[in-house]
């Protein structure tokens, strides 16, 4: 849904997989979840992995789409704060991320036209750390993390809270993400323009769509 983009005033970015990609960080997040689930059941990490896989299959059948890791852990009785405490203790983005001057330049060039926001299932501390490591922590007007929404994406009520807090009709937003079902499906149902990206280089499409570059 990429029409009437001349009205866009607020660009809302997902974080992981959208502003950066790192298999190492993804692996650390998965490992943290497996250990947490295993410890909660008094079993090994390997058994925790199997429980997550089983819960994911069950939720996929129920929801008719693959659930996020957060939602899967919730299905296994893990509370969201506990999940993010485990990530805080076991995920180390500083080992894998460096400053990205090209990303900064891309985002900075958008700020004259639009306000920029982050909407992520990550916690605020982890989000702030990642953005600082990338060198883009100063370009966003506000960060909407799990502490603000309380419920992970995709969730219509959480999205409504974000939209209400930013303000403006649907056509003044543009949502950017790497997962159609998680990041973009719900905004799209509200008539909000969306852009699916596969890598950070795809963010150049925003400039073309907004007429910043030909």
From TrEMBL:
InterPro entries: HAD-like_hydrolase_sf (IPR050155), HAD-like_sf (IPR036412), HAD-SF_hydro_IA (IPR006439), HAD_sf (IPR023214). It is an enzyme of class 3 (hydrolase). GO terms for biological process: DNA repair. SUPFAM superfamilies: HAD-like. One of its GO terms (cellular component) is cytosol. Pathway: Organic acid metabolism; glycolate biosynthesis; glycolate from 2-phosphoglycolate: step 1/1. One of its GO terms (molecular function) is phosphoglycolate phosphatase activity. Its EC number is 3.1.3.18. It catalyses: 2-phosphoglycolate + H2O = glycolate + phosphate. It comes from the Bacteria. It holds the Pfam family Hydrolase. Belongs to the HAD-like hydrolase superfamily. CbbY/CbbZ/Gph/YieH family. This is phosphoglycolate phosphatase.
